[in-house]
Amino acid sequence: MGGRRMINVRLTLAVCAAAAAAVAAAPAAEDLAARAARLHQASIVADTHEDVPEDMGEKWGAYANWHDIGEPGATKEVDIPRLKQGGVTAPFFAVYVPASYAESGGSARYALDLSDLIDGMVARHPGELVGAASVADIRRAKAEGRIAVLKGIEGGHAIEDSMGALRGFYRLGIRYMTLTHTNTNHWADSSGNFFAPDYAAATYQVHHGLTDFGRAVVREMNRLGMMVDVSHASVETIDDVLESSRAPVFASHSSCRALSNIPRNLTDDQIKRIAAQGGVVMVNVSSIFLDQAAVDRFQAELDRIRPQYLATKEQYKDDPARRQQELDKIMKGLPKRAPSDWTKVVDHIEHVIRIAGPDAVGLGTDFDGIPDPPAGLEDVSKLPRITEELLRRGHSDDEVRKVLGENFLRFFSKVEEVSRSLASEPPSQAQIPPAP
Ligand SMILES: [Zn+2]
């Protein structure tokens, strides 16, 4: 074979190889999308925090005006058509009780109303939705092609310091309780409201974690089979929960502080300890939970309005109602927070996997409760993008299934198992002792 002919053959081979690579590249991308869609559709997708009732209330006012969740746009980010598009199997609708009820009274009644309203939403759509309260219920709903709607209480003040109320809520199908919202209650400290310009963590450190009654609440939740949620809890409360809980615990809607330093996110150490006990961290998709740049921008805004905020607080100190009105006005004047890129959600998922393993992470979007979902993940219909991005970054099908729902189901079934093992334990009679 002559030299020139050899070169020609080589050239031809090289051209063929390049062409083959080009042909291969196009189907590879298609394959990934198709593979992701198939995997997502076949998987159980759990989302442990959706503020559907809160958004309904904000958007439509009085309950009588609430729109049907079957209508597109009934809430900002969640409705039946979008839940279906998003392939969601098991959303938890939050029975969120605002902190104001802790002061005015009526927390338990408010929680009862919301629980009833969620049941009503489900009852109107028997073909598409089904009320669920166990791992078995979720798997059955998936097999039937229905969406399993679950309920979680957000804000431990909802039980009004009553074990009887806690048990009542369990009987109504409520399967987790976030121990605090942004308020410290009578038995557990909160991480507080860091959105306030005068935020100071110490203000919320009243008990330095859980009181004896708070520990009894956690233990009674273990006995009942109600998941203990540490989202919103203070550092000391999380320490006490991890020490006193007999079942693994979870964070229903919190992300990683290493990537976005806000008190609502978890430190690496907390994530590792939650995981070591068999718990899971369900990643929140709010831009400020995901992105340090969003935190820094927000902090700069808070610094800007702080003098005015403090002056207003002082000016109306004798008129609490007016003071609140004026402070709300200042807060509403803040510019809308810019959305971050949606792939940061996957960065947080990968961070948990890196420090605590692939069994420790899931999704707790907080849709309908956040003002700043990321660009590209504007509502629950976009969740399949997370599956595709995880596959694109090289995660196995098995790992993706874990993130989407299997980690949460494993954790939930452990909570159920611990409850069964405590069947012979009598109900707690703990009370908060009257003030001396
Ligand atoms: Zn929350």
In percent, how helical is the residue content?
40-55%
Radius of gyration: 24 Å
| SS content category | alpha/beta
Gap between N and C termini: 105 Å
Helix-strand pattern, N to C? HEHHEHHEHEHEHEHHEHHHHEHH
For the secondary structure, the number of strands is 8
Number of helical runs? 16
Q: Major sheet: size, sense and barrel closure? A: 6 strands, parallel
Specify the overall morphology: globular
What ions, cofactors and ligands are bound?
zinc ion
The pLDDT mean sits at 93
The low-pLDDT segments are 1-7, 18-25
Strand content: 5-15%
Task: Give structural notes.
With 436 residues, the protein is α/β, with parallel strands linked by helices. It contains 16 helices and 8 strands. Strands 1, 2, 3, 4, 5 and 6 form a 6-stranded parallel beta sheet that branches. The protein has a two-stranded parallel ribbon with strand order 7-8. The N and C termini lie far apart (105 Å). Bound molecules: zinc ion (ZN). The site of zinc ion has 5 residues, from loops.
Topology:
Elements lengths: L2 H40 L3 E5 L1 H9 L19 H6 L4 E7 L3 H5 L2 H17 L5 E3 L3 H10 L2 E8 L8 H9 L2 E5 L33 H13 L2 E3 L5 H10 L23 H9 L4 E3 L3 H4 L1 H24 L4 H13 L10 H14 L4 E3 L20 H9 L4 H25 L15
Helix pairs in contact: 1-15, 7-8, 12-13
This protein binds zinc ion (ZN).
Provide a brief overview of the structure:
This protein is 50% helix and 8% strand. The protein is α/β, with parallel strands linked by helices and 436 residues long.
List keywords for this structure.
50% helix, alpha/beta, two-stranded parallel ribbon, disordered N terminus, binds zinc ion, 6-stranded parallel sheet, 16 helices
